[in-house]
């Protein structure tokens, strides 16, 4: 595709053209630029993001072709098309690209299971076809066109998923994917907000298949059957299936007059449904039962997201071992690039399959990716990647097999390692070798949910209002380095910590954002200049000590003035302002970055009048201080609840705390926030207890009848408080809540699993989607803050990105 062709395709206007160019790659994010020529950058303007702010960054990375929505300033050697909206323009380009290919394309939609079905279909068919598919869960208005753009003449089949959140969206995706075979996985309550009913949602999703030759669906969902009959073309063949008989993992599925007798590898209902969709798809494509069974036997669990885990020797490992395609590699490298906890970054990479590129071109492009993302070391595993070692300029070593690599003297230290490989290389063995195994209990932090919550609150602010995010108390238990790094990537304006030690650790781990220390001690003053830290000043005695410490020095660290307006904690009182102002006038080198206070009851409508009084008092007191200065410092008053309830007090900056982690103190916004943390453990042992026997310390638990208990490795030393003992607390196993029995031990808890079929090694959810942290807080009469911050640092943190 040539640049000049885009004017008609995009329905835009070329505003500047130097010379025509061949378009090889479409990019909406400058972090994903992987080649040095032929890149077309779409500047997309959204609610929380404006791509036009990154056009210069794209130019600096070699981009010379742009699609924009408004005038941008760029050097003269560029090609620019101006359109009304960049996202629809991108979709039009992708739709044209799709029209160039005639091989089969499978479209997948539904409420759940889209990504699993897509990945399993690819696993089952990749022995016969060269397949192009959506990377990860790229199923949105943006993700679908970027996925379809990956189609080339060297592929034999496409598999793309499509997801929608409101009416009208699927029509646009259908024009891009144009599936020849459709799979409608299921219909349920997930992502229901944009639809008036389940049937309306089914009708909208069915629009993906309006011109399909065949559509597969399960008879278990009458809404799907009705939607397809009313939506798709009369020429479309509807292929309904149902389970005719099942005995354990042995399933007989009926497809019209045909029956398939299959043995499945997975037994949970969702996996059974997903497996059968794939089996029916192979049947429709003409495969016999024997082949279908043999391909079902190859299925492996799909990891739905990137996982960053603590590794040996003060390192981290990013686990992305379930497949290895080029676009997925770009996504993984971007995730690695965003991690600044360690400066050294290593990639362990297997051969890439079915990219449609000649080997030298493919691995030259990968070398560009590695260099653009500033990778320090590459470990290439596989005969293919080893054969083109001369293509790489990054420090590299190569092994023909995973076994040869594991037999080497490879070691990691103070680095972040991305492990990215096709499943037949068994890279999970490498992750197992690298992973730090200190504890069987894991706190899983979802970085995408954090980003969602940050953007939720950002959208409530005027453009000029800055945001400080509180990462004190180990980032509310989530892990301060990793979360601070994400916040730095998303360009928050300030971080807030309680003590100097917390700030020092952030600085030592690559965090360069401004940091306000809320409770600095005088013996930590010596660190402020060296580490560029900004302390809170809350009393005359403390301020005088601070000034005296830096007496005679040319530069003094900037400070933040805390005013007492009704919280009755730290802060200057009204009768101290005169003396405060005198000191600020006398010490001209002392720069006040901000003046702030804290609302005592912003989340509770009963305290509205008091909060308004605090706001008025803060305005009066801060204006008195500012009148004495020759510059204007920032002012901030509102916390998470105040952001929502007191918009008139946003001033120059707001402070976001518990809201980032998915908890709305006001409760009105709760459904728009996402759960960030999931605390998981596993069953160490299952024991049968006879009637009358006691359980645990103090013999507080008794078996009133013959029962079964599960012992899990989490106790009060991990933050699971003793208050949860004796049935007060509950955990979830296989979606079923089970109560504690007996006292909580230091390192272990016993659960009553009499009515649940369990075995050792099975996963146990302490909190997450169910039960939630709010549930736990309610059971013991506390608040979510306490549950979160009590989680011990010995509990391993894992960071995931969808």
Automatic annotation (TrEMBL):
The modification N6-(pyridoxal phosphate)lysine is found at residue 472. The keyword Mitochondrion does not apply. InterPro entries: Ala_racemase, Ala_racemase/Decarboxylase_C, Ala_racemase_C, Ala_racemase_N, Mur-like_cat_sf, Mur_ligase_C_dom_sf, Mur_ligase_cen, Mur_ligase_N. NCBIfam families: alr, PRK11930.1. Substrate binds at residues 569, 746. SUPFAM superfamilies: Alanine racemase C-terminal domain-like, MurD-like peptide ligases, catalytic domain, MurD-like peptide ligases, peptide-binding domain, MurE/MurF N-terminal domain, PLP-binding barrel. CDD domains: PLPDE_III_AR. Belongs to the alanine racemase family. Keywords: Isomerase, Ligase, Pyridoxal phosphate. Pfam families: Ala_racemase_C, Ala_racemase_N, Mur_ligase, Mur_ligase_M. Its cofactor is pyridoxal 5'-phosphate. Its EC number is 5.1.1.1. Residues 676-800 form the Alanine racemase C-terminal domain. Coiled coil: none annotated. This is Alanine racemase. One of its GO terms (molecular function) is ligase activity. It catalyses: L-alanine = D-alanine. Pathway: Amino-acid biosynthesis; D-alanine biosynthesis; D-alanine from L-alanine: step 1/1. The active site is at 472 (proton acceptor), 697 (proton acceptor). Catalyzes the interconversion of L-alanine and D-alanine. May also act on other amino acids.
């Amino acid at each position: 595709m040539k640049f000049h062709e885009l004017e008609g395709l995009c329905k835009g206007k070329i505003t500047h053209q130097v010379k025509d160019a061949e378009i090889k790659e479409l990019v909406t994010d400058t972090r994903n630029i992987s080649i040095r020529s032929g890149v077309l950058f779409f500047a997309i303007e959204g609610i929380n993001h404006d791509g036009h702010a990154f056009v210069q960054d794209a130019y600096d990375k070699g981009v010379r072709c742009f699609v924009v929505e408004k005038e941008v300033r760029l050097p003269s050697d560029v090609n620019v098309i101006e359109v009304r909206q960049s996202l629809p323009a991108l979709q039009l380009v992708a739709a044209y690209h799709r029209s160039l290919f005639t091989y089969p394309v499978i479209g997948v939609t539904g409420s759940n299971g889209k990504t699993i079905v897509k990945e399993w279909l690819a696993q089952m068919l990749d022995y016969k076809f060269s397949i192009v598919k959506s990377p990860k869960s790229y199923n949105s208005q943006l993700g679908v066109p970027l996925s379809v753009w990956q189609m080339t003449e060297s592929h034999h089949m496409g598999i793309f998923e499509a997801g929608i959140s409101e009416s009208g969206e699927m029509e646009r995706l259908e024009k891009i994917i144009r599936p020849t075979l459709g799979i409608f996985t299921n219909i349920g309550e997930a992502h229901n907000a944009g639809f008036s009913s389940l049937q309306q949602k089914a009708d909208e999703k069915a629009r993906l298949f309006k011109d399909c030759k065949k559509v597969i669906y399960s008879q278990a969902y009458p809404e799907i059957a009705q939607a397809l009959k009313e939506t798709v073309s009369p020429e479309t063949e509807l292929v309904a299936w149902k389970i005719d008989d099942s005995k354990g993992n042995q399933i007989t599925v009926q497809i019209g007059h045909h029956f398939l007798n299959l043995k499945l590898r997975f037994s949970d209902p969702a996996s059974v449904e997903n497996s059968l969709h794939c089996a029916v798809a192979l049947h429709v494509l003409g495969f016999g039962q024997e082949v279908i069974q043999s391909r079902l036997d190859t299925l492996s669990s799909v990891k739905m997201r990137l996982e960053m885990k603590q590794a040996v020797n003060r390192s981290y490992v990013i686990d992305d071992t379930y497949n290895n395609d080029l676009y997925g590699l770009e996504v993984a490298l971007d995730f690695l690039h965003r991690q600044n906890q360690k400066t050294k970054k290593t990639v362990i990479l297997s051969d890439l399959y079915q990219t449609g590129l000649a080997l030298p071109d493919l691995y030259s492009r990968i070398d560009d990716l590695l260099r653009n993302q500033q990778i320090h070391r590459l470990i290439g595993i596989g005969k293919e990647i080893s054969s083109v070692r001369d293509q790489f300029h990054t420090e590299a070593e190569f092994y023909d097999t995973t076994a040869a690599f594991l037999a080497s003297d490879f070691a990691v230290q103070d680095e972040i390692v991305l492990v990215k490989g096709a499943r037949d290389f068994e890279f999970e063995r490498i992750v197992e070798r690298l992973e730090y195994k200190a504890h069987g209990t894991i706190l899983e932090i979802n970085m995408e949910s954090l980003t969602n919550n940050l953007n939720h609150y950002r959208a409530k602010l005027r453009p000029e209002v800055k945001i400080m995010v509180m990462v004190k108390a180990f980032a509310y238990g989530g892990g301060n380095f990793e979360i601070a790094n994400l916040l730095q990537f998303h360009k928050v304006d300030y971080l807030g910590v309680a003590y100097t030690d917390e700030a020092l650790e952030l600085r030592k781990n690559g965090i360069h954002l401004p940091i306000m220390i809320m409770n600095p001690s005088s013996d930590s003053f010596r660190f402020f200049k060296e580490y560029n830290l900004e302390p809170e000043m809350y009393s005359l005695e403390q301020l005088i000590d601070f000034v005296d410490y830096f007496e005679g020095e040319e530069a003094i660290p900037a400070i933040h003035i805390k005013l007492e307006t009704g919280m009755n904690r730290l802060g200057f009182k009204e009768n101290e302002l005169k003396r405060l102002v005198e000191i600020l006038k006398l010490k001209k080198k002392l720069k006040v970055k901000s003046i702030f206070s804290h609302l005592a009851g912003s989340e509770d409508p009963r305290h509205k009048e008091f909060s308004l009084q605090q706001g008025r008092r803060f305005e009066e007191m801060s204006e008195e201080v500012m009148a004495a200065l020759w510059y204007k410092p920032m002012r901030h008053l509102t916390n998470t609840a105040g952001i929502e309830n007191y918009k008139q007090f946003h001033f120059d900056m707001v402070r976001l705390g518990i809201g980032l982690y998915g908890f709305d103190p006001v409760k009105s916004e709760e459904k728009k926030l996402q759960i960030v943390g999931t605390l998981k453990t596993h069953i160490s042992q299952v024991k049968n207890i006879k009637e009358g026997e006691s359980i645990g310390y103090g013999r507080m638990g008794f078996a009133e009848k013959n029962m079964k208990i599960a012992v899990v490795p989490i106790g009060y030393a991990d933050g699971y408080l003793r208050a949860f003992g004796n049935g007060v607390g509950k955990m979830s196993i296989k979606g079923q809540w089970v109560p504690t029995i007996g006292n909580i031990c230091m390192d272990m808890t016993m659960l009553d699993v009499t009515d649940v079929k369990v075995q050792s090694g099975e996963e146990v959810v302490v909190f997450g989607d169910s039960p939630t942290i709010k549930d736990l807080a309610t059971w013991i009469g506390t608040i979510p803050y306490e549950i979160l911050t009590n989680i011990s640092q010995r509990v391993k943190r894992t960071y995931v990105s969808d």
